[in-house]
Amino acid sequence: MVRSKELPPRHDTTSSREKAIQHDLHGRVAQLLATAILRGDYAPDSILPREAELMEAFGVSRTVLREALRTLTSKGLIESRPRVGTRVRPKPAWNLLDADLLDWYSRVAEPLAFALKLQEMREMIEPYAASLAAAAYTDETLRALTAAHASMVAARNVDEWVRADLQFHMGVLIACSNELLIPLGALIERTLEAQLRLNAKRADVFNASLAEHTAVFEAIRARDAAAARAAMASLLGVTRGRIEG
């Protein structure tokens, strides 16, 4: 008797595609609803429309909508209460240190106000980070910082400059050898890139701040923590001037 060969297990490709589509849909609905809240369409402490209304507005199923609402709940934007409905939480409860939420907020916030808030955050962190980097860099992190600085020197247009500038600032945070600062850099990366691009376009030439970046780099490489801190503060002072100008 000839035994039939065992067939390989069948993959439910239709199910996989449907799951991928549903995932994309719930992500899109989460972004649209979060953007509406962050923009002020739904005020803090207000009650969102009922599920049926939201399903109709977004053209999605109850499953997709509920998954989107769970996403926004995890980000601190909303909360559901029995017999009350889904309520927008007060602003202090919003987790704006969530990468998605910060990115969405940056797109709807008043541009100058948001740029200044990001600048304040940078001024609190980056000068001290530069001093830490000067004291704690390794051969590997210095090579990465050196490469970023070299890319800034070699940049021939705004796009090349912004990529290198972002790489430089992320490199400073990584060189601190403080694992708590690295996720912070990754968190603000998307919004920082937009700010760096704006600053480059506002300058007389895109690489107008090369000398200030070089001063930071040379102080870090020389392991001069005080000079690195002062140089980064000076660089950020130039950045603030361009934002306010």
Classify the helix fraction into a percent range: over 70%
Assigned CATH class of the largest domain: Mainly Alpha
Structural class category: mainly alpha
| pLDDT < 50 stretches | 1-14
- Number of separate strands: 2
Count of discrete structural domains:
2
Question: Please, could you describe this protein's structure?
Answer:
With 245 residues, this protein is mostly helical. It has 2 domains: 16-93, Orthogonal Bundle (Arc Repressor Mutant, subunit A); 111-244, GntR ligand-binding domain-like (Four Helix Bundle (Hemerythrin (Met), subunit A), Up-down Bundle), CATH 1.20.120. 70% of the residues lie in helices and 3% in strands. It contains 10 helices and 2 strands. The protein has helices at residues 13-39, 51-58, 62-74, 99-108, 111-136, 139-154, 158-175, 181-202, 210-221, 225-244, and strands spanning 78-81, 85-88. The chain has a two-stranded antiparallel ribbon. α5 (111-136) packs parallel to α9 and α9 (210-221) packs antiparallel against α10 (225-244). The longest helix has 27 residues, at 13-39. Mean pLDDT is 88; it is low at 1-14. One of its GO terms (molecular function) is DNA-binding transcription factor activity.
Provide the fold topology.
Blueprint: H1 13-39, H2 51-58, H3 62-74, E1 78-81, E2 85-88, H4 99-108, H5 111-136, H6 139-154, H7 158-175, H8 181-202, H9 210-221, H10 225-244
Antiparallel strand pairs: 1-2
Task: List the defining traits of the structure above.
245 residues, mainly alpha, Arc Repressor Mutant, subunit A, Four Helix Bundle (Hemerythrin (Met), subunit A), two-stranded antiparallel ribbon, 10 helices, elongated, disordered N terminus
